[in-house]
Amino acid sequence: MPGLKKRSLVLAGHGTSLALEPAFWTVLEALAAARGLSLAGLVASIDAARGAQPLASACRLAALAFAADARPAGEVQ
User: Fold this and answer.
1) Which structural domain, as residue segments, surrounds residue 33?
2) Can you tell me the distance from the alpha carbon of 25 to that of 59, in angstroms, rounded to the nearest whole number?
3) Which end of the chain lies in a sparser environment, N or C, as judged by fewer CB atoms within 10 Å?
4) How much of the chain is in helix, strand and coil states, percent to nearest 5?
């Protein structure tokens, strides 16, 4: 898997950057589209719900949950 891709976002009025593997960004973009949100809006919602968990970890878990839900039943990758 290629290295991390860093993106700059504004969360709660503060600029921040988030580094994730490109595959996770791809899934997060699909999740944002499915929810009718911008990518920044999706990350903001993940940020608001993450508690003490690191933002990158929370984003990866959200992407994994969405990918698992989107996969046809019984399909294993």
Assistant:
1) 5-70
2) 9
3) C
4) 55, 20, 30
The answer to whether position 47 is within a domain reads yes
Amino acid at 36: G
Look at residue 45 and tell me if it is in a domain: yes
Residue 73 is encoded by which pair of tokens? 């039943």
Residue 43 burial by Cβ neighbours in a 10 Å radius (0-12, 13-18, 19+): buried
Model pTM above 0.90:
no
Model confidence over 20-65: pLDDT tens digits? 999 999 999 999 999 999 999 999 999 999 999 999 999 999 999 9
Residues near 46 by beta carbon (within 8 Å), at least 6 away in sequence: 55, 58, 59, 62
